[in-house]
Write a structure and sequence with these properties.
Length: 204
């Protein structure tokens, strides 16, 4: 994406991208967003929004400022990314990534993409119903990979924090299991910390 003009980026192209903003003349549907009426996903009909069964059009509501009035694009510029990658401790890196970059992109797009910040229970997030979700989280993975490369000997297996959002059942660890619901075998977190390791085989 073009950090200087987020909403004019090529990913929003109607023919070669993910389609654009919600129809500004239409009603608000979910997440302060309106129906997307162009692009390849204009006929997409999600059936939930957070906890609620609600069949609706795919909704977006592009916005340019965060909750305190700061232009959203400034969170994604070279200075912000450089500061993130220089963060020495994983816990601080994770906090900055989650609260400054990750959540603000959800806010910049809004609509279905805003459900992450509307729900307090991660099990009910439905932000993934907007296909842009997967592009955004690939970039989160990319930035984590870049942070690891800055000091690979130390950072490759740094991992800590809570098991889930707002959980009180102790600290996360590399031995925690990743559950795939039968799609593939469950594996510990330690197996996927290195993208060039045995289970994974990719780099950016």
């Amino acid at each position: 994406m073009d950090w200087m003009d987020l909403h004019s980026s090529s990913i929003w192209n109607n023919l070669t991208g993910f389609g654009g903003d919600g129809d500004p003349s239409g009603p608000i549907v979910v997440g302060e967003g309106r129906c997307v009426t162009d692009g390849p996903f204009s006929n997409l009909r999600p059936v939930r929004y957070n906890h609620t069964s609600l069949k609706h059009c795919l909704a977006r509501g592009f916005r340019n400022e965060d909750a305190v009035g700061r232009p959203l694009n400034t969170w994604f510029g070279p200075e912000s990314i450089g500061r993130l990658l220089r963060t020495p401790r994983y816990r601080d890196f994770e906090w900055d990534m989650e609260n400054r970059l990750h959540n603000r992109m959800h806010r910049a797009v809004s609509g279905d993409f805003l459900s992450l910040t509307a729900a307090n229970d991660c099990a009910y997030n439905t932000d993934w119903t907007d296909p842009v979700f997967y592009l955004h989280h690939a970039q989160i993975d990319h930035l984590w990979w870049r942070w690891q490369q800055e000091n690979k000997a130390t950072r490759l297996y740094e991992y800590e924090g809570k098991h889930m959002f707002n959980s009180t059942d102790g600290e996360a660890s590399l031995s925690d299991m990743l559950h795939y619901g039968g799609f593939t075998e469950d594996i510990p977190v330690s197996f996927v910390m290195d993208t060039e390791g045995g289970r994974l085989c990719y780099k950016y």
